[in-house]
Amino acid sequence: SQTIHQWPATLVQPVGSPLSLECTVEGTSNPNLYWYRQAAGRGLQLLFYSVGIGQISSEVPQNLSASRPQDRQFILSSKKLLLSDSGFYLCAWSGLFVTGELFFGEGSRLTVL
Amino acid sequence: GNSVTQMEGPVTLSEEAFLTINCTYTATGYPSLFWYVQYPGEGLQLLLKATKADDKGSNKGFEATYRKETTSFHLEKGSVQVSDSAVYFCALSEYVSAGGADGLTFGKGTHLIIQP
């Protein structure tokens, strides 16, 4: 069966410091991968998605970037964090030729102080 | 563009009460529809789905029927439990082509609180 993991689960970082959140999927090949952010109001914002290695699409201009160095690995990064980057970050995957549902990781809580 | 509208709550009910969370959508084509549930501090879990008009998705006592004529996908449960307390998200997916990475369009979530 397929599983998705992301880490770290919780992170407290000072303003201006770098960020790296990692996500890996197991049990499937060529997944579509996504990063969402959930801010205090509970809404979900799509940040990035990827259909393959090295292919990244950005939905919202921001202080963040994403990379996909391997088929089942998706990384969210920042060179210098802002206070507004605080939130709950969710990685998700979907397969091909299915009805479009996403499967989410456990989430990473980022607090920028 | 696509959009999903749902009541934000919080919705507070007593245990064993009947639950309805309304969800309506706007889409240009024929989307698939989903309900996700998020427990405190966790990621989203797929609760149920429906892929075409008049389909009924069901899971764990929850049900939702895809109503194309009213563009709705309301979530219902006959008798809620304290353990159902969570945030519920309605979402749609409109795959333009196989392998498309459009992701999901989410509603803002409904916070459900069940009191004993």
3D structure, described in words:
The complex is a heterodimer of chains A (113) and B (116). With 113 residues, chain A is mainly beta. Chain A contains no helices and 11 strands. Chain A has strands at residues 3-7, 10-13, 19-26, 32-38, 44-52, 55-58, 65-70, 73-78, 87-94, 103-104, 108-112. In chain A, a hairpin with a 2-residue loop joins strand 5 (44-52) and strand 6. In chain A, 35% of the residues are buried. The model of chain A has no long low-confidence stretch (mean pLDDT 91). In chain B, strands 2, 5, 6, 10, 11 and 12 form a 6-stranded mixed beta sheet that branches. In chain B, strands 3-9-8-7 form a 4-stranded antiparallel beta sheet, with no helix packed on it. In chain B, a hairpin with a 5-residue loop joins strand 5 and strand 6 (44-50). Classes of the chains: A mainly beta (113), B mainly beta (116).
Give a brief outline of the structure.
The complex is a heterodimer of chains A (113) and B (116). Helices cover 0% and strands 57% of the residues of chain A.
Order of helices and strands of chain A: EEEEEEEEEEE
CA gyration radius of chain A, whole angstroms:
13 Å
Instruction: Give the overall shape of chain A, derived from the CA principal axes.
Output: globular
Order of helices and strands of chain B: EEEEEEEEEEEE
The number of helices of chain B is 0
The biggest beta sheet of chain A reads:
7 strands, mixed
> End-to-end span of chain A in angstroms?
39 Å
Q: How far is the first residue's CA from the last residue's CA of chain B?
A: 41 Å
- Provide the low-confidence segments of chain A as ranges: none
| Unreliable spans of chain B | none
**Oligomer status:** heterodimer
Structural class of the helix and strand makeup of chain B? mainly beta
Helical fraction of chain B equals under 10%
What is the averaged pLDDT score of chain B? 91
What general outline of chain B do the C-alpha atoms trace? globular
Radius of gyration of chain B: 14 Å
Largest sheet of chain B: 6 strands, mixed
Number of helices of chain A: 0
| Average pLDDT number of chain A | 91
